[in-house]
Amino acid sequence: MRRTAVFLGAMLAASTALAQQPDRWERFVAAYDEADKVSPPLKHQIVFVGSSTIRRWDVASYFPDLKIINRGIDGTELSDALKYIDRLVLRYEPRLVVVYAGDNDIGGGKLSEQVSVDFERFVRAVQTRLPETRILYIGIKPSPLRWLQVDRMRLANQVIRTICERDDRLAFLDFDNLMLGWDEKPRRELYVEDGLHLWPQGYQLWTAVLRPYLVQ
Predict the structure, then answer these.
(1) b or e along 103-122 (b: 16 or more beta carbons within 10 Å of the residue's beta carbon)?
(2) End-to-end CA distance of the chain
């Protein structure tokens, strides 16, 4: 009995300590909050949201003619974009949301099905508040670093594509084949040394394919 009580006490203490830990992403979201106070972005524009592939995209250089609000955060998952959706997306009342997330989810061990469920929840959260807003999901890219997980990534992409095909307000953009070489492996020239993030050639490819969707 005493051992059980000690064990339960330790579990409770661990749970309490975990709950008291500061949110991992709060400081990054708060930084965007502060930036908005200094220079409030226009509403009804385009919002980019997601992980480091979004955060590193210099949208002002690649899309100088468009008003784009970049709210990417390194290391985040789709569930994080959902958690902070009010502050990263909804407050701007965008006409279009471009999402790239899911890469870290699969890399961290999440099931493909969980990624697709999180996408559905994200869509529902946007459409509940902003029913006219369109959402474009960029499919999880194949990369040298995470090549062993590509099958799970493709499964998540397949399910999300099906979700998008059911709603005219949604679109799925697939870069899988475009980023593979003759050997059906990721083209190394598109990636920086870490084998995960995009080199300028990668962003140039993404920009060229994405642009027609942004100007509609």
Answers:
(1) bbbbbeebebebbbebbeeb
(2) 68
- For 26-214, the fitting CATH number among 3.40.50.720, 3.40.50.450, 3.40.1190.20, 3.40.50.1110 is 3.40.50.1110
Distance CA 51, CA 108 (A): 13
Distance between CA atoms of 40 and 58, rounded to whole angstroms?
19
CA 92 to chain centre: 17
pTM confidence score: 0.88
Nearest to 175 by CA among 83, 94, 121, 102: 102
Q: With contact defined as beta carbons under 8 Å apart, do 136 and 96 qualify?
A: yes
pLDDT tens per residue across span 181-203: 999 999 999 999 999 999 999 99
**pLDDT tens, position by position, 29-84:** 999 999 999 999 999 999 999 999 999 999 999 999 999 999 999 999 999 999 99
The sign of the CA dihedral 42, 45, 50, 52 is negative
Residue type, 21: Q
Half-sphere exposure of 203 (CA within 13 A, CB side): 17
DSSP run (H or E) holding 153: helix 150-165
